[in-house]
Protein: Aminotransferase class V-fold PLP-dependent enzyme
Organism: Siculibacillus lacustris
Amino acid sequence: MPEDIRNRLGLRPVINVSGTMTSLGASIVGPDAIAAMTGILPQFVEMGDLHRLASRAIAAATGAEAGFVTASCAAGITLAIAATMTGSDLAAIEQLPDTTGLKTEVVMLTGHMVDYGAPIDQSVRLAGAELVLVGQSTSSHAYQLAGAIGENTAAALYVVSHHVAHYGMIPLATFIEVAHAKGVPVIVDGASEYDLRGFLAAGADIAIYSAHKFLGGPTAGLVAGSKALVRATYLQNRGIGRGMKTGKESILGAVAALEAWGRRDHAAVRRRERAALDHWLGVLDGRPGVTATIDPDPTGNPLDRLKLRIDPAEARISAWDLVDALAAGDPPLIVRDHEVEHGFFHLDPCNLHEGEEFLVGDRLAAELDAAQRRNEPLISCFATRVQRQEDGILAWPD
Ligand SMILES: *Cc1c(COP(=O)(O)O)cnc(C)c1O
């Protein structure tokens, strides 16, 4: 094992059992991507040709006509929306975010109004566009979408994610049918979705993915779709995309990660992830106040997580206090706690290094044992915890 660089830098050696989180450095970048980035960094290349190479690789992996690598999925959304507004008109591209003379409206379902560390509507507004929301938080109908599309509609944006409302959303096929009947292109934000082909195969004009999530690439966004729209997205690098550009290392690293994904033994990865879940189930079996169940990914990614429901009276600790104890301990364990106010959290095995599942099991057992020794259950005020986290953000860099 090479030296862990975090020790030298004084950074905590966190174990990521939360999945793919920007706040933890996204994912483990695989050896193919690292080798590609190392190889290209000292060399000069003609960037237009490197982008052509990336376009071919993205097309091969997704079934698209063309592809483009930008800084992130969030950047991809902004630039693809801009592409629907400007096309390949270089004067219009330089004019943004001034939208005089351009279509400016983007329709999206209200239940798709997600936050992925920043609000999705801001990725749309950055292009100079404005969002037109369709339906309510957990309900939407095709007639509402049709009614929201007008002369000024540039694009229709559809989000596939565990973050969206899980029922009452217009199915993608219907969404595409309604938008296309009105001549409006459909952009799918599939940042975290393992399915690289399905959205385009269903008729979407653009599908956008993160390179640094399941693909295990460097931080980048992959835009795949029709040649005309991807070209117009690429050309935004001469405009608002300049500040979202990728270097040669990110472009080639993303391509290498994409190609490695195609060669990966996915069944073996699933077996390893399943073995981690089984190990934790064994560790947690019979512990008071802990109910552990296997929870399939809500959007159908081939990924299961372990859901731990905590009864604070029996476990003698609340779910969020257990999460905080795991994060504060040695080694620090960061679990998936988006819904912890409901008394549960998840363990996600997809970003563990070999053997870390055993450390996770040991730490869980140690914290649950310590909780049993308490005279009074530890159940802190949840609102205070939220406030403490927000205060912490604002105190940076202290
Ligand atoms: C992570 C995520 C994003 C943002 O992706 P980045 O590549 O980190 O910008 C956008 N949409 C969804 C649904 C996501 O999960």
